[in-house]
Amino acid sequence: MDEYKKILRIAAYLLEYPDESWRSEFADYRQAASELSNVQVRDVFKDYFDYVEQVGAKEYEQQYVRRFDFSQNTNLYLTTHNRTDFGKQSMEMNKFKTLFLENGYDLRNELPDYLPALLELAATVDRDSARKILSTARSKIELLRERFIEAKLPQVFLLDVILSQESALEVS
To answer: Is 28 helix (H, G, I), strand (E, B) or coil?
Structure first.
């Protein structure tokens, strides 16, 4: 598997809701992250896995809910952060939905602007398609990154990794 696919899968995993299933896969994803050849990305993931362990399962889950489920500024749905024009938001949502359909997927249980779902999609397709997906989401991820910095969220480093993968796919 291409390294960008592994990186995007791990980033998607780390941004998903930390339920019991998530916790049961924690060691496997941590191991996969430790095997990456990109030292900078490997270190970011190692630090993040360490952080999750230090915080503890219950507290991490509570933080997740506060940071993402109950916050309009830092939730992981990319079209909700600058919701001043619902027509524009609808067009953006449709653009994300089209990315899934063009790549043979249809989301039934998730909105198409959910960042972990977009990362999973980018991890399943070829380099050009992955670059297109990440490029389409880039400005929204950058806005989310600014919000994470303002809120002092450690997940900002995961967004840096995601943005670096979009850049790396451009030069490949």
So the answer is: helix
Number of domains the chain is built from: 1
The domain that holds 82 is classified in CATH as 1.10.3480
Q: Please, is 90 exposed, middle or buried when counting C-beta atoms within 10 Å of its C-beta (0-12, 13-18, 19+)?
A: exposed
pTM, to two decimals: 0.92
> How would you write the pLDDT of the chain (172 residues) with one tens digit per residue?
799 999 999 999 999 999 999 999 999 999 999 999 999 999 999 999 999 999 999 999 999 999 998 888 899 999 886 656 666 778 888 888 888 889 888 877 788 999 999 999 999 999 999 999 999 999 999 999 999 999 999 999 999 999 999 888 876 5
CA distance 34 to 29: 9
Query: Domain containing 102: what range?
Result: 3-171
